[in-house]
Structure formats: C-alpha cells, structure tokens
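Narrative summary of target 7.
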Amino acid sequence: MSQEGTQKQESPAQRPTTYYDVLDLDRDATPEELKAAYYALARQYHPDVKPGDTENAQRFALINEAYRVLSDQQRRYQYDRTLPKKTYPLRHPAPGKVWREATDVVLIRSDRFGPLNQAMQASVPITLDGDMLVLTIPGSERHLSGHLETAANRNSILNALELVAGRRIQFRLIDGSTVDEWETLKAAESKARASSAAAAETAQQSGAAAPARSAVAEVPWDELVQRMHRQYQQLPKRQYPQSKARYLREALGWLIRTDEEIRFAGDVNEDAHERALARAIERLASIVELPPVLVAVELESMRRSGEV
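Modeled conformation, tokenized:
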C-alpha cells in the first residue's frame, strides 16, 4: 500500500484491503483495540522472527504504515473519508455491533423511519449463540416486538444480518434479559425434546403409535401465553379500544408465527396442536375481552390476507 487510500484485492474473500483489514479490525475499532492488534501483529511479523524473509518484512512494513495512519486521529479521519461509508462483512461480529449495523442497513433500504426501525432500535442483543442472535425488548417498548416478526420484516432483518455478519444468522426475541435466562430457556427446550424422543422410542419398542412432538410444542405455546400477558400489562393506554385493537393484531402475529414454527418442525400431533392453538386463542380473547370465535375469525383473516 504505497499511499493512504490505495486498495488492492485480498484473497479469498476478494474484499478491498484497507489499513483496517491489514490490522484485522472493523472500522469502529477503538484506540485500545488498535494498539492491541498492532502489537500482536508486530510480534508475529517482526523481521527477527523470520530473518531474510522478504515477504514477511513487507508485511511488517505495511502493518507499521497502517498503525501510523490509524493511530493518528487526524490522519485516520482523512483516511476514512477515502473509504466506502460501510464495509461488510464485519471482521469481529459482536452481538451489539451486528444488530446495530443490521439496523442501519434496514433503515437505509427502507428509506423511511417506521415501526420496524423503532422496534429494531428498541431491541437489545443478549448474545450471539452460534448462528442465533438472541434479543430482548425492555420495559414499555415491548409492544413493538410484533413488528420484528411479520414475514416481510423478518426477511428484511435476516438479509441485513447476513450482509453484516457474512453468514446466515437467525434471531430470536425472548422475554428474559440475560445470558443465564437464555441458557435456562434452551435447557428447558432441550429437556422437552429429549422427553419427546424418549417417549417416541418407548412407543416404538412397544409397538404403539409414536407420540408426536407435543412435549416440544408445549414450550413455545406456554412461552407465547406468558408473553401475551406480559406485553398486555405493559401496553400503553390499554383502556382505549384502539390500543387493544393494535395489541390484538400484534398478538395474532405472534400466535400465527408460533403455529407455523411448530408445524414446520414436523412430527406434529394434529389433535394436540389444535387444542394448544385453541387454548392460546381463548387466552388472547380473555385478555382483550372478546369472544374467542371473533379472535379466531380475525386470525384466519390475517392468514388469508398474508399480513403475517
């Protein structure tokens, strides 16, 4: 890199090589991260490590050049102006950084600030567990969560996450706010799956019909019902019918998504599943003080219209 702003192609990703790439940093790296990266690379590529190695010496010179520019606030500012505003995928996709960048991508692509952007900005990343980004929405803003879960919005978020992280990442919104609560939820779901598998194996050995995944299905249904109650309690101005109407449509979106996720998983006991769905509809109806059949009618209307 003979001058500031000069770029060349890097294999295998074929992304432009910048001073940030040389030091294996993202564009928002702090001075502390910059210094740590420089010293680690300098020790690795110092000419004393491989005396007479021309390529190694050139790499060491480039590392020094990158550090001289980026460690100087004014020179870094001028250099950043020569680069594209954003560079993806992130080299170090921490949960908060991934979600923040994905939110920016969605906002830019939608070209307007709406409920989806409000919901994304209100969401707080808890952890990135493999390819699952776990989120929560705190306090009085929980009513925005439904905007993350419609089919169109979810697809937009997933595409933004893939762009930012460089791989396909799913996301999940939970009612907890800590890694421990996420681990507890995972453990409960794992236990339910193990119980269901054991029951199926026992039934198979005895020659009886294998039970479907009713034990697994209970977990998301129970979680959904708890969520409906919590979010209604935090609903602003819930004494007004228009607030209840908005909440009802959001809650129906959650219900439809839970129904689809369980069916997509396969091996569903239809009778048990329909009973669980009916119980959720009845619980939602009691929350909004409507007859269950009217809630079921609205549910089917939303399915047919493809709103979710």
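The CA atoms of residues 241 and 288 lie 9 Å apart.
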